[in-house]
Structure formats: structure tokens, C-alpha cells
Amino acid sequence: NFAVTLPQKSADELGELATSIETLATDLNYLKRERNEFLASISHELRTPLTYIKGYADILLKQNPPTDEREKYLAIIVTEINRLNLLIQDLFELAKIDKNSFVIKKEKIDLSIFLKRLERKLTPAINEKNMIFNVHNPSSLNLHADPIRLEQILLNLLDNAIKYSKTGGLVELKVWKEKKTIHFLIRDNGKGVPEKDIPYIFNRFYRVEKSRKRSLGGTGLGLSIVQELVHAHGAEITLKSQEQIGTEFEIIFKENEK
Ligand code: ADP
């Protein structure tokens, strides 16, 4: 009789191993599917502006339209080229993040100076839409973070707050310290995110109302980059939003460095 009776412990271990292999296989399949979907989205997103560019360039070449129409077509071509540019920049950013080949260079940031500079940078966009920008600037508060990345995170969220708000709207930026955490709140009273879209809002290429967003020129990659950069700092980002009322993003940094 060659039947092998496994000691109880190894049988349990084998069972556990089998379960982890199964989980791993499911994870790998999921990652493969996600990667394929991502590549499909990239090709689609790159192809759309190229189709416009080719279409209008062809008309310009072959039909020699009158000057006013020519100008209109050239303007569309330039817009679509800018869009491709933004898309490629964002894709490079994500590729760097995915390869873990970007480094967070943390340093002590004096938030009061930092926020003043940020406010100045946003003034033209705020003024252009006749909006109000309230910055609650804390005095003497420092944060250990990568200043370039922190600026990128906040500019992205504030740009969205402006972009998805009506003329004359209000954008707020609040920063405060709790016991061991530093909080950033970015709030607008713009169009908000529908409840059903909230769970997907940080996904790559995710946009509410796909066709409308084209005219606003986004890539749908901004928030996924923001989330990766926040996580790279060991921080968390959450979102609360209500349609037609507004949107609020909160970022929480753990302040454990001296
Ligand atoms: P996009 O380049 O389209 O702005 P993002 O990743 O930055 O892409 O944002 C994803 C989507 O989330 C946007 O298309 C928009 O529908 C929604 N969104 C982001 N920020 C806001 C906001 N402050 N108010 C309303 N909707 C927003």
C-alpha cells in the first residue's frame, strides 16, 4: 500500500498554498485584463485627436477652402495637437509611476509661503471665470513632502475645481493640522460628480459625460495621477460630492517626521 498519509499540518499548508496560488492566478488575470483595457483606452484616446488632425489637414490640402474656414480648421488642428501633447505628458507620468522610477524628494515645506505662491499661479484662471478663490492660509505650519509633487497634486485638483464650476463660482483651499495629521481640503460649488460615478472617479481615463469633457480638454488621467502621488507620500485622498452642489477633496498627510 503506497498511499501516503500527509501529516495534518502539511495538508493544511498545502491547502493554504493551493488557495494562494488560486488567488494569485485571479490577481494576474485581473491585472492582465486591466492592462489590456488600459492599452485599448490609450490607443483610442490617441487615435481620436489624430483622426481630427488628419481629417482637417486633408481638407486644407485637397479642397483649398476659403480663408475663414481655413482658420477654423487650423484652430481645430492646433487644439487637437495640444490635446495629444497633454495626453502624452500624462502617460509618461503614469509610466514613471508604474515603474516606480520616480522618487519622492521630501523636504520641509513652509506651507504659508507655498500656498501664497500657489494662489498667485491660479489667479489668472480664477479671474478669467470671475471666480472667488478663498485660501485659508495657516501661519507657521510645515509639512514634510515633495514640493514639486505637492504643487502638482493641488494644481490638478484646483484646476478641476475651476474647470467644472460655473462662471462666478467659489473655490476654497483649507489647510489645518490635527494631532498627528495635516489636512488639505479643496472645495468648489460647481457641477459636482453624480453618485454613481464617484467610485470610479480616480480610475485612469474615467470621465463623467465623456462627450462633454472633450470640449473641456481633459485627459481623464489627472485624478489617477493625483491619487498615485498622494499614496506615494503615504497620504490618503477622499472625495465627497453632490451634483449641482459641489465637490470636496480631502488629503490627509501623516506628519511623523520631526
Ligand atoms: P479630466 O482630465 O477629464 O479633468 P480627471 O482625472 O482630472 O480628468 O477627472 C476625472 C473626471 O472627474 C472629470 O472628467 C470630471 O468629470 C470629474 N471631476 C473631477 N474633478 C471634478 C470637480 N471638481 N467637479 C466636478 N467633477 C469633477
Quick gist of this model?
The chain has 258 residues and is an alpha+beta fold. Helices cover 55% and strands 17% of the residues. The strands form two sheets. Strands 2-4-5-7-6 form a five-stranded mixed β-sheet, with helices on one face.
Ordered list of secondary-structure elements with their pairings:
Blueprint: H1 8-63, H2 67-98, E1 107-110, H3 111-128, E2 132-136, E3 142-145, H4 147-163, E4 170-177, E5 181-188, H5 210-216, H6 222-232, E6 236-242, E7 246-254
Parallel strand pairs: 2-4
Antiparallel strand pairs: 1-3, 4-5, 5-7, 6-7
Helix pairs in contact: 1-2, 2-6, 3-4, 4-6
Adenosine-5'-diphosphate binds next to helix 4 and helix 6.
What report would you give on this structure?
By secondary structure, this protein is an alpha+beta fold. The termini are far apart. The strands form two sheets. Strands 2-4-5-7-6 form a five-stranded mixed β-sheet, with helices on one face. It is 55% helix and 17% strand. It contains six helices and seven strands. A hairpin with a 3-residue loop joins strand 4 and strand 5. Helix 1 (8-63) packs antiparallel against helix 2 and helix 3 packs parallel to helix 4. The mean pLDDT is 90. Bound molecules: adenosine-5'-diphosphate. Residues 160-161, 164, 188, 190-193, 201, 206-208, 213, 218-223, 247 line the site of adenosine-5'-diphosphate. It is an enzyme of class 2 (transferase). It is found in: Cell membrane. This is histidine kinase. Its EC number is 2.7.13.3. One of its GO terms (cellular component) is plasma membrane.
